[in-house]
Structure formats: structure tokens, C-alpha cells
Amino acid sequence: xxxxxxxxxxxxxxxxxxxxxxxxxxxxxxxxxxxxxxxxxxxxxxxxxxxxxxxxxxxxxxxxxxxxxxxxxxxxxxxxxxxxxxxxxxxxxxxxxxxxxxxxxxxxxxxxxxxxxxxxxxxxxxxxxxxxxxxxxxxxxx
Length: 142
What we know:
InterPro entries: DUF3010. This is DUF3010 family protein. The protein has 142 residues and is an alpha/beta fold. It is 37% helix and 25% strand. It has one domain: Nucleotidyltransferase, domain 5. Strands 1, 2, 3, 4, 5 and 6 form a six-stranded mixed sheet that branches. Helix 1 packs across helix 2 and helix 3 (102-111) packs across helix 4.
């Protein structure tokens, strides 16, 4: 199973590619660490973001996109732009999109702690939440 973990923030979708085969995780190389939403104010900007994301999914033969869920209200609520990016991803034809709640991520990491740091996995620290979303989804599939 090939996954892309996604954390959406105000300006970009931070991504991590991962595969799960026979119970073994493999973090895969990717040509980018994030896809920027350059112009969220008009349809062309959102379509450009959607095209770039779709190209990543096609090029790396992704089976499932796993997005870290953000609250809609409150202190830690996601930005309007992050919800625009989420909608653009969900509307791509032919891809499976799953949302993973922060509580599920915390519970999974508590039960199945990682023995590695992001540096060990050759990821940047800002990619940790995207990795955790994909890791949580993959573990809960078995």
C-alpha cells in the first residue's frame, strides 16, 4: 500500500510518502516536501494546487491520501485556506482520501511508539505530523 501523509497549514500541504508491505514501513523519496497554495483567492490558484497534488499521486502511484484532521472551531482551528486545500484534494477523481483525528494519532503513537527520529527517517521536523498521520492510518489498517 502506498500512502501520502498530509498536514495542511495556511499556505501549503506538507507531504510524506510512505509504503507498507508485509508489515514493514518504508519512507519514500519525493521530489518535494510540500505543495504550496499560491493564490487561494481565485479558482485558477486552487486548480493549480489540485493539479500539482494529482500529479504527485499519479507519479508515485499513491493508493490513499491521509490528511491530518483539523478542528473547525476553537483555539487550534484550521485556516480557511487549509479547508480549501482539503476540498481540492478530496475532489480529485479516482483517489481515496482519509482523515485521521489528532486523538487517534496520539493514541496510536502511545501504543506503538516510534523507535526513530525524523532525522533517522531522513525527514524534516516540519514533516512529522504528516508522517504521523500516514503511520497511524497504516497501523490501523492491519
